[in-house]
C-alpha cells in the first residue's frame, strides 16, 4: 500500500496536466469539426506545423528585430501568434477546398500529415543544419503562472468557452444542425458553408496552439515528429467524449493521466508501460463500437415507420 | 466526354499531380542553392541507374517489394469500397509472427518457410477483419478504427521486441536473427532484390486475373462501386467486403513476413516506418489497378531510394525530400477538383482539332 501511495505523487498529477494540454487542444479541435460534420484528420499535421512555425518565428523575431532582441518573451509571444495565424490559414484552406471544390478531405489529410512530418525535417536540416532536434539558447518559453504555462490555463478557458458556445448560443445550435443533417439545416436558411469554415478555421487554430505548447510552451525545442500521435489521440479523445467539450476534456485528462503513469512506470519500476499506453486506443474502439451500434439500431427502428 | 477521353483523364490527373509535385519540390531544392535540374538528374540516377557494384535499380526493385504488396492490399480494400488504412498494422502483425515462429520452431526449412508465410497471412487477414467487422456489423468509421489499430500494432511491436522477443540486453530493442536456412535468397547480395520480388510479381498477376476475369472479382467491383445495384443483383455485399478485407490483410501480412525472411531477418522497433501509408499512396496513385500499383510502387520506391542514395550522399540535400515529393503528389491528387476543369477543356479542344 505504501509503495502504491508513493507512486501517485503530486508530481504525477502535475505531469499529467502538462501532458493533457496538447491532447486537449487537439481534441477540442476534433470535437468542433466532428460536431460540424467534417472529419478532420489533419490535426496531427496541423499540430506539427504549428509547433514548427511557433519556434521558427520566435527565433527569427528574437534574432532580427530590435523588440525581439530586447525582450525574449515578446519574441516567443509573436511566435505563438504566428502559429495561430498559420493555423487559421490552414483551416481556411481546408474549408475552401472542402466547400468550394468538394475535394476529399480524408485523402488530403493523409497527404498533409505526411508532408508536414517530412517538410519540417527537411527545412530543419537544410536551413538550420540540425539532424533530429533543433533549439536555440537565446529563446525562452512562454511565462508560467504558478506551476503551469499560460497555454495550460488557456486550454481550460477554451474548454469552458466551447461548452458555452455549444450549449448556449445560436451558433452552437447551427453547428449541431449542420453536423447531423446538412440538407435540413440548409433548408431552414443556415449557411452550411459558414459553419464548416468556422469549425475548420477554429480547429486549425486550436491544433496549432497545441503544437506551439509543445515547441515553445513547456520546453524550447523542436524534434522530428514532435506531435508523435497526439493529434490522433485528440481525435480519439473527442470521439471518446461524444464530441462534447466537457466529455472531451475528461477524456483528454484520462489520456494525459495514462501517459503520465506510463512515463512514471518507465522511470520507477520495471513494469512495461505499454499496457497503459494501449488503453486509450482500445477504449476508443470499444466506445466507438457501442455508440455506432446504438446509432445503427436507432436508424433501423426509425426506418420501420 | 466519350470513353476514350475519360480514360485519358484518368491518366492525365496523376501525371499533372506528378508535374506539380516536382515543381514545388524544385522550389524546395532551389532553397539549398543546388540547381533543381542537377538534383533531379542525380535523383533519377540514384533511383534507376545501372552502374556501380550494386545497381541502384536493383535496390529500388528490392525496396519496391513491400510497397507492391501493401499497395495491392490497399487496392483490394478500396475496390470493396472500404477506405481502410490499417495496412500498417497488418504488415507489422505479419512480421511479428514471422520473426517469432522463425526463432521458436525448428522444422526443416522447406516446410517451415511456407508455414510461416501461411501463418503471417492468416494473422494479417484476422487483423484486417477487425475494422471490416466493426464497419459492416456496427457501422464504425473504418478510418478511425484503422488508426486505433495501427497505434495498437506499433505498441504491441514495441512491447514484444523490448521484452519477450528481445535478443540481447544491448541498447537496441530487437529480436534474434533468424537461422540462415530460412532466409529468402536475394539475386544480388546487398540489393534486397530477391525471391520476394518474384512472389510480389505473381501476386500482381493473380490479383489482375481475380479482379477482371472471375465472378468473385466482378462481385467485388460491383459491391464497391454500386452497393445498391450489387444487392439488387443478389450479391451479399457484406460478405464480399469481409472476403476482400481478408485478402487485403493476407497480402499485407505476407509483405511483413517477406520483409523479415528476405530482408531484415529480425524485427526491431520502428520496423514499419510508415510503409502502410506508402501502400495507401501507391493504391491511390495506381488508380486501384494491379498494373498501376506495380508501376507506382517502383516509382515511389525509386523516389525514396534516389533521395537517399543520390541527393543525400552526393548533393547533401536531406533525404526527406523524397518523402516531401511523394506527399506533394498525393496532395495534388486530392486537390484534383481544382484543376480538372482546365484539363477537361484541354482534352476536349485538342480532340476537336483532330
Radius of gyration of chain A (CA) equals 20 Å
Specify the CATH class of chain A. Mainly Alpha
Taking the alpha carbons of the first and last residues of chain A, their distance comes to: 58 Å
Overall radius of gyration of chain B: 21 Å
Order of helices and strands of chain B: HHHHHHHHHHHHHH
Structural class of chain B: mainly alpha
Largest interface: A-B, 42 and 46 residues
Oligomeric state as shown: heterodimer
How are the strands of the biggest sheet of chain A laid out side by side? 1-4
How many separate helices of chain A? 13
Q: How many strands, which pairing sense, and closed or not: the largest β-sheet of chain B?
A: none
Helix content of chain B: over 70%
The general outline of chain B is globular
> Which residues of chain B sit in consecutive blocks of at least 5 with pLDDT less than 50?
none
What would you say about this model in short?
The complex is a heterodimer of chains A (305) and B (354). Helix content of chain A is 78%, strand content 3%.
Structure explained in plain terms:
- The complex is a heterodimer of chains A (305) and B (354).
- Chain A is built from 13 helices and four strands.
- Chain A has 305 residues and is mainly α.
- In chain A, strand 2 and strand 3 (148-149) form a beta hairpin.
- In chain A, helix 2 crosses helix 11 (230-240), helix 11 (230-240) crosses helix 12 (245-268) and helix 11 crosses helix 13.
- Chain A starts with a helix and ends with a helix.
- Chain B has helices at 3-30, 36-48, 56-79, 87-104, 109-138, 142-162, 195-213, 215-225, 227-232, 237-264, 275-285, 290-315, 320-334, 336-353.
- Chain B is mainly α.
- Chain B has a domain at 60-285.
- In chain B, 76% of the residues lie in helices and 0% in strands.
Amino acid at each position: 500500500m505504501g509503495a502504491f501511495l508513493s507512486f501517485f505523487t503530486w508530481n504525477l498529477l502535475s505531469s499529467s496536466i502538462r501532458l493533457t494540454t496538447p491532447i486537449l487542444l487537439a481534441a477540442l479541435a476534433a470535437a468542433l469539426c466532428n460536431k460540424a460534420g467534417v472529419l478532420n484528420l489533419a490535426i496531427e499535421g496541423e499540430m506539427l506545423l504549428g509547433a514548427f512555425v511557433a519556434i521558427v518565428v520566435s527565433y527569427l523575431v528574437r534574432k532580427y528585430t530590435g523588440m525581439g532582441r530586447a525582450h525574449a518573451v515578446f519574441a516567443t509571444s509573436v511566435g505563438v501568434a504566428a502559429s495561430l495565424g498559420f493555423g487559421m490559414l490552414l483551416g481556411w484552406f481546408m474549408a475552401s477546398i472542402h466547400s468550394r471544390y468538394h475535394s476529399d478531405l480524408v485523402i488530403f489529410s493523409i497527404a498533409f500529415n505526411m508532408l508536414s512530418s517530412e517538410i519540417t525535417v527537411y527545412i530543419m536540416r537544410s536551413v538550420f543544419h540540425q539532424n533530429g532536434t533543433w533549439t536555440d539558447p537565446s529563446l525562452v518559453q512562454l511565462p508560467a503562472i504558478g506551476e503551469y504555462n499560460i497555454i495550460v490555463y488557456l486550454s481550460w478557458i477554451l474548454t469552458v468557452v466551447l461548452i458555452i458556445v455549444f450549449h448556449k448560443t445560436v451558433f452552437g445550435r447551427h453547428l449541431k444542425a449542420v453536423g447531423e443533417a446538412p440538407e435540413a439545416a440548409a433548408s431552414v436558411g443556415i449557411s452550411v458553408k459558414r459553419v464548416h469554415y468556422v469549425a475548420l478555421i477554429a480547429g486549425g487554430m486550436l491544433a496549432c496552439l497545441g503544437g506551439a505548447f509543445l515547441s515553445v510552451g513547456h520546453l524550447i525545442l523542436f524534434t522530428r515528429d514532435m506531435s508523435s500521435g497526439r493529434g490522433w489521440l485528440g481525435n480519439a479523445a473527442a470521439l471518446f467524449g461524444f464530441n462534447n467539450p466537457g466529455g472531451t476534456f475528461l477524456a483528454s485528462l484520462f489520456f494525459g493521466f495514462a501517459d503520465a503513469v506510463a512515463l512514471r512506470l518507465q522511470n520507477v519500476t520495471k513494469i512495461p508501460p505499454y499496457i497503459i499506453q494501449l488503453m486509450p486506443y482500445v477504449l476508443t474502439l470499444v466506445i466507438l463500437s457501442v455508440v455506432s451500434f446504438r446509432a445503427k439500431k436507432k436508424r433501423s427502428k426509425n426506418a420501420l415507420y | 466526354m466519350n470513353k476514350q477521353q475519360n480514360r485519358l483523364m484518368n491518366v492525365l490527373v496523376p501525371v499533372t499531380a506528378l508535374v506539380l509535385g516536382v515543381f514545388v519540390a524544385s522550389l524546395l531544392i532551389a532553397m539549398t542553392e543546388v540547381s533543381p535540374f542537377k538534383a533531379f538528374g542525380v535523383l533519377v540516377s540514384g533511383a534507376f541507374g545501372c552502374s556501380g557494384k550494386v545497381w541502384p535499380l536493383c535496390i529500388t526493385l528490392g525496396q519496391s517489394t513491400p510497397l507492391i504488396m501493401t499497395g495491392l492490399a490497399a487496392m483490394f480494400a478500396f475496390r470493396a469500397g472500404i477506405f481502410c488504412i490499417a495496412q500498417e498494422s497488418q504488415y507489422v502483425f505479419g512480421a511479428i509472427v514471422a520473426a517469432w515462429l522463425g526463432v521458436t520452431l525448428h522444422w526443416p526449412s522447406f516446410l517451415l518457410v511456407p508455414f510461416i508465410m501461411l501463418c503471417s497471412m492468416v494473422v494479417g487477414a484476422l487483423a484486417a477483419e477487425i475494422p471490416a467487422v466493426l464497419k459492416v456489423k456496427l457501422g464504425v468509421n473504418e478510418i478511425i478504427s484503422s488508426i486505433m489499430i495501427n497505434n495498437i500494432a506499433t505498441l504491441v511491436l514495441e512491447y514484444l521486441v523490448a521484452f519477450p522477443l528481445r535478443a540481447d540486453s544491448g541498447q537496441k530493442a530487437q529480436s534474434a536473427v533468424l537461422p540462415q536456412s530460412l532466409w529468402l535468397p536475394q539475386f544480388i547480395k546487398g540489393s534486397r532484390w530477391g525471391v520476394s520480388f518474384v512472389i510480389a510479381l505473381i501476386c500482381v498477376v493473380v490479383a489482375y486475373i481475380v479482379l477482371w476475369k472471375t465472378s468473385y472479382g466482378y462481385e467485388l467491383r460491383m459491391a464497391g462501386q454500386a452497393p445498391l445495384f450489387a444487392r439488387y443483383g443478389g450479391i451479399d455485399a457484406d460478405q464480399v467486403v469481409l472476403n476482400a478485407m481478408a485478402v487485403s490483410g493476407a497480402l499485407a501480412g505476407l509483405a511483413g513476413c517477406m520483409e523479415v525472411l528476405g530482408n531484415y531477418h529480425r524485427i526491431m522497433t520502428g520496423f514499419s516506418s510508415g510503409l502502410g501509408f506508402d501502400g495507401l499512396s501507391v493504391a491511390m496513385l495506381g488508380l486501384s489497378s494491379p498494373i498501376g500499383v506495380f508501376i507506382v510502387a517502383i516509382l515511389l520506391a525509386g523516389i525514396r531510394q534516389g533521395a537517399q542514395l543520390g541527393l543525400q550522399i552526393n548533393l547533401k540535400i536531406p533525404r526527406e525530400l523524397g518523402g516531401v515529393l511523394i506527399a506533394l503528389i498525393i496532395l495534388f491528387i486530392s486537390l484534383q477538383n481544382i484543376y480538372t476543369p482546365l484539363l477537361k477543356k484541354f482534352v476536349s479542344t485538342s480532340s476537336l482539332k483532330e
